[in-house]
Design brief:
The protein is α+β, with helices and mostly antiparallel strands. Helices cover 42% and strands 17% of the residues. A hairpin with a 5-residue loop joins β13 and β14. About 4% of the residues have low confidence. Pfam families: Fer4_18, Fer4_5, FixG_C. Keywords: 4Fe-4S, Electron transport, Iron, Iron-sulfur, Membrane, Metal-binding, Transmembrane, Transmembrane helix, Transport.
Length: 481
C-alpha cells in the first residue's frame, strides 16, 4: 500500500548545496537532455504558439459580426469560437465545457497521473520559459548555486539586471496577448502600442504582467505544490495502475557507487543499480526525491527519468531505473512477479466513453440549436386583473432572440386559451427583431377563463414560416390571491 508523501525535503539535502557552503533555500533545477525534455520543449512551443497566434486568426461570420476566430465579446455578450457562437443565456454550454475539462483531467490522471501539470499547464510552460532565460543569463545549476552569496562583480550586476528585464518583457507579452482575446486583436494591439487603449486594458496588462512575473519567476514550485488545488485531489483520485514517475527500488537498492557495487557483486552480495548521484533530484523542478516514494508534489514531467537514464547509459546499465511505471508493478517487482501494464481497464474505458458521450451530446446540441428563441416570464404583481367586461387579463414579458445576421419579422400568437386575445404594448402582433440581437416585449393576454390553463406563446418567422414556442400559464383572478 503506497502513501503520497507531502514532505519533499530530502534527507540528503546537504549533499546538494554549493561548494561554498551557502545553503540554497530555493529550488535550482539543472538542465537535462532526453526524450521527455524534448517532449516538454515541443509542448512549450505548441502551447505558446497557440496562445500568441490564436487571437489573430480570422473567421468570416457575416457583415455585422466580428471576424476574430476566438473572441470573448463582453460588449455584445457573446463568446465566439470559430463557427460556434455562445450567448449569455447558453451558459450551460460553458458548464458542459468545464465538466468535460474535469473529466479529461481525471482520465489523464488515471492514465499517467499529473501529466497535464508536467507538460501543458500554463504555470509549467511559463516556468520552463523563465528557467530557459535564467540559464541563458546566469548559467546552469552549478554556476547559479556558486553565485549565491558570492562577491558582486560587473558581470554579476549585469546578470542581475538582465534576467528580470527579460522576464518582465515576457510577462508583459503574456498579459498583452491575454487581453487580445477580449477585443479585436489587431486594433487593440495598435492602441496598446500607441497609448490609445483604455485604462482598463492597461490595468489588466499590468495585473497579468505582475502575476506572470511573480508566479513563474519566484513562486514556481510553491504554485505547483501549495497554491494549485489539483495536487490536493491526488490523494482522492490517485490510481496505482496509472503510469506515474516511480523509482524501481527493487532494482536500485541498496544504493552505492559503481565501484562499491562491483565489489559487492564480486562477493556475491546484493548491490543496486542506483549510484546515489542525485541527478534525479537536481533536475526536478519541484525539488523532490522520487526515490523516497510517491509524492503528491510530483508533476510527472519525466525529467528525472531523462537524468537517471543518462547515468545508466554511461554506466552501461539498463535504462528505466526511474520510469513511467504503475505502482502495482513496483509492488510486483518486489514480489518478483511478471510486470503488467493495464492502460485499458474499466476505469479508463468508462471515463473515455463519458468524455466521448458528453462531447457528442454537446456537439449534437450545438448543431441542432435554432437561430430563434423565445422566453416568457409571467408578471408577479399583479398576477391577474379582472376587466370591466368580466374577462381576465394576464401580463407577460416576452423576449425574442434573433441569432441570425439579418433582421427578421415575427408574428406572435398565443394558443391553448379558448376565446383568448393577445396585445403587444407599443406594437402590433408582428414585430421586427434586428440581426444578432434580442427584443423584449410587454404582452397582455385576455380571456374569459375561470381556471388555470396552460398556454403557449408562438413566434413565427414571417419569411420562412419556422416557429418557436414557449410554455407558460394563464391564471384567473382567484389564482392570484
Amino acid at each position: 500500500m503506497a502513501t503520497l508523501d507531502i514532505s519533499f525535503k530530502s534527507e540528503r539535502a546537504h549533499l546538494r548545496q554549493p561548494k561554498r557552503g551557502v545553503i540554497a533555500e530555493k529550488v535550482v533545477p539543472q538542465s537535462i537532455t532526453g526524450r521527455y525534455r524534448r517532449l516538454k520543449w515541443t509542448a512549450l512551443i505548441v502551447c505558446l504558439a497557440i496562445y500568441y497566434i490564436l487571437p489573430f486568426i480570422r473567421w468570416a461570420r457575416g457583415p455585422s459580426q466580428p471576424d476574430q476566430a476566438v473572441l470573448f465579446d463582453f460588449e455584445r455578450g457573446r463568446l465566439y469560437f470559430f463557427f460556434i457562437e455562445i450567448w449569455p443565456q447558453e451558459v450551460y454550454y460553458l458548464t458542459g465545457l468545464l465538466i468535460l475539462a474535469t473529466l479529461i483531467l481525471v482520465w489523464l490522471n488515471a492514465i499517467a497521473g499529473r501529466v497535464w501539470c508536467g507538460y501543458f499547464c500554463p504555470q509549467t510552460v511559463w516556468t520552463d520559459l523563465f528557467l530557459l532565460v535564467e540559464r541563458w543569463v546566469e548559467g546552469d545549476r552549478r554556476e547559479r548555486l556558486n553565485k549565491q552569496g558570492a562577491p558582486l562583480s560587473a558581470r554579476r550586476v549585469l546578470e542581475i539586471g538582465v534576467k528580470p528585464a527579460v522576464w518582465i518583457v515576457i510577462a508583459m507579452l503574456t498579459g498583452g496577448a491575454f487581453i487580445l482575446y477580449f477585443a479585436d486583436a489587431p486594433t487593440l494591439l495598435v492602441e496598446l502600442a500607441t497609448g490609445q487603449a483604455s485604462v482598463l486594458s492597461y490595468a489588466w496588462v499590468g495585473i497579468l504582467t505582475f502575476t506572470t512575473y511573480t508566479l513563474a519567476g519566484f513562486a514556481r514550485e510553491q504554485v505547483c505544490t501549495w497554491m494549485c488545488p489539483w495536487p490536493r485531489l491526488q490523494g482522492a483520485i490517485w490510481d496505482p495502475e496509472a503510469l506515474t514517475v516511480n523509482y524501481r527500488d527493487y532494482r536500485g537498492e541498496p544504493r552505492g557507487s559503481a565501484k562499491k557495487a562491483a565489489e559487492l557483486k564480486a562477493k556475491g552480495e546484493p548491490a543496486g543499480d542506483c549510484v546515489d548521484c542525485l541527478q534525479c533530484v537536481n533536475v526536478c523542478p519541484i525539488g523532490i526525491d522520487i526515490r523516497e516514494g510517491p509524492n503528491f508534489a510530483c508533476i510527472n514531467c519525466g525529467l528525472c527519468v531523462d537524468a537517471c537514464d543518462s547515468v545508466m547509459i554511461k554506466l552501461k546499465r539498463p535504462r528505466g531505473l526511474i520510469d513511467y511505471e504503475a505502482w502495482t508493478n513496483i509492488e510486483r517487482g518486489h514480489r518478483k512477479e511478471l510486470l503488467r501494464r493495464r492502460i485499458i481497464r474499466p476505469k479508463t474505458v468508462g471515463l473515455g466513453l463519458s468524455i466521448v458521450a458528453l462531447m457528442g451530446v454537446m456537439g449534437v446540441s450545438l448543431s441542432m440549436r435554432s437561430e430563434t428563441k423565445i422566453t416568457v416570464i409571467h408578471d408577479r404583481n399583479p398576477v391577474a386583473v379582472r376587466l370591466s367586461d368580466g374577462r381576465i387579463r394576464n401580463g407577460y414579458t416576452v423576449r425574442l432572440y434573433n441569432k441570425a445576421d439579418v433582421g427578421r419579422d415575427f408574428r406572435l400568437e398565443v394558443t391553448g386559451l379558448p376565446g383568448g386575445s393577445i396585445e403587444v404594448i407599443g406594437d402590433d402582433t408582428t414585430v421586427s427583431v434586428a440581426p444578432d440581437t434580442t427584443r423584449e416585449l410587454r404582452v397582455l393576454v385576455s380571456a374569459p377563463a375561470d381556471d388555470r390553463q396552460a398556454i403557449a406563446f408562438t413566434a413565427t418567422d414571417v419569411a420562412s414560416g419556422s416557429t418557436v414556442a414557449a410554455q407558460n400559464t394563464f391564471i384567473p383572478v382567484e389564482g392570484g390571491h
